[in-house]
From TrEMBL:
Family: Belongs to the ribF family.
InterPro entries: Cyt_trans-like, FAD_synthase, Riboflavin_kinase, Riboflavin_kinase_bac, Riboflavin_kinase_bac/euk, Riboflavin_kinase_dom_sf, Rossmann-like_a/b/a_fold
Name of the molecule in the record: Riboflavin biosynthesis protein
MF-aspect GO terms: FMN adenylyltransferase activity; riboflavin kinase activity
Species for this entry: Tumebacillus lipolyticus
Keywords: ATP-binding, FAD, Flavoprotein, FMN, Kinase, Multifunctional enzyme, Nucleotide-binding, Nucleotidyltransferase, Transferase
Amino acid sequence: MEIIHINDLLAGDSVEYLPSVMALGNFDGIHIGHQQLIRRAKELAASAGVPSSVLTFHPHPRQVLGKGGFAHLLTPFEEKMRVMQEFGVDIVYVVHFTLEFAALTAEDFVFRFLDRLHPQSVVVGFDYAFGRGGKSDTSQLKHLAEQIGIDVEIVGAVSRYGEKVSSTLIREKLSYSDVRLVQELLGRPYSIEGIVEHGDKRGRLLGFPTANLGSCEPYMLPRNGVYLVRVLAEDAWYAGVLNIGTKPTFHDSHRRTLEVHLLNFEGDLYDQRVRLELLDYLRDEKKFFSVEELIQQIKADVQEAQVRLAAFAGISY
């Protein structure tokens, strides 16, 4: 997959962009609705004998525009690129989103920007908005694009349980720790990547050594609690039990940490990058009144995790 960064296409450059069939959107989460757009773009591209492409934005437009709730992402940039590659996208155009870009009129976006990328056709969701203030919709996009020979295909909503699948819905469900529903909406488990750092080694003393993830700042995290996860470490998958929270039994700090105990793993992972995939929610985080009480609860968590793994027979670990 080729990744092409576009900083200021309006200023002119010497790149000759290939004709393609292009899916437009921000694609935070790359959920099953986004995947429908990508699949359709790939189908049209294959029929036309041209590459499939995605046009997306970085940073997230809502961050640049100062709109709340998007300081943390479902798919930070590297994660988004990884998932795009898994879906077989040929080209990803990454537009550096600025206030100047946000100020483009609908006409400028289509005639001065989109046209220079030479898409034969574009695929958008029914609720796609663009142009200054996001005031132009798909009908306006179709009207303008077809004037310069670009076909526009509009894809309808994907719904689950009476609700439109969206990044906003997934954020809401993630905040409630409903990670099994989040997995259904994403079409894959929600994942978080981070570097394993040295911790206080208390887990090892308790008999349950943990890998402590460093800053996961770009990611939106679910609420504090204990989760069943699988972990990609050293090119192998392991089942694990993850605690997200402030370790109230030992600390009064409000700093959130991620600690994962890997089942059937020996060794250490210090300074290595690992990927966690959230499979199920086990329980709330809580404060224990003795170390022995905590140890007994961790044992129970591990046993419950092993029982629940049977529900994920299709996922290797």
